[in-house]
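Weekly sync, protein design subgroup
Attendees: M.S., D.O., the rotation student, P.L. (late)

Item 1: inverse folding check
M.S. brought a backbone from last month's batch and wanted to see whether the design step gives back something sensible before we order anything. D.O. pointed out we never logged the input encoding, so this time it goes straight into the notes. Structure tokens as presented (159 positions):
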């Protein structure tokens, strides 16, 4: 593998479009032509959709040939129909925000800290469990407090 191949794979990984299972792509275009890169998830998904829409492949045939499940095909197709090529870029996995530490919970945390500035995150976690029946890791509390401090700092700096 050349250094170009290595740097391309690194760039694909950084951009979140590195196909982690390139060996499962069995399409002849990806086998015969260097232009088609089975490591490029965006290209693989696009070609899978194109094979169904333009070459009249079945969804089962395309998904199997490109190393995806049928539900994954339909998800890619729907995303492509809604957003175009950017819809094929994988989104952020997991929670999109601090779902346990809502505004009212964080207000409680800040009030508790205002009353006792010596409280540690582990102690705050116990308070949250008692008050809200909410299990939160102490590190999550520390991160949430840091985020709020940054927001306040931006506000005071006029940003």
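Designed sequence read out in the meeting:
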């Amino acid at each position: 593998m050349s250094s170009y191949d290595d740097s391309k794979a690194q760039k694909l990984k950084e951009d979140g479009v590195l196909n982690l299972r390139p060996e499962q792509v069995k399409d002849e275009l990806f086998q015969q032509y260097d232009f088609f890169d089975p490591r490029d998830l965006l290209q693989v998904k696009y070609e899978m959709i194109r094979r169904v829409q333009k070459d009249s492949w079945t969804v089962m045939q395309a998904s199997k040939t490109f190393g995806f499940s049928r539900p994954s095909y339909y998800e890619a197709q729907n995303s492509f129909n809604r957003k175009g090529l950017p819809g094929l870029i994988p989104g952020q996995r997991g929670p999109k925000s601090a779902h346990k530490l809502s505004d009212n919970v964080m207000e409680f945390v800040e009030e508790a800290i205002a009353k006792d500035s010596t409280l540690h995150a582990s102690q705050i976690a116990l308070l949250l469990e008692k008050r809200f029946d909410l299990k939160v890791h102490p590190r999550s509390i520390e991160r949430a407090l840091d985020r709020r401090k940054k927001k306040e700092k931006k506000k005071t700096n006029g940003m």
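Discussion: The longest helix spans residues 138-156. DSSP finds eight helices and no strands in the chain.
Action: P.L. to compare against the previous round before Friday.
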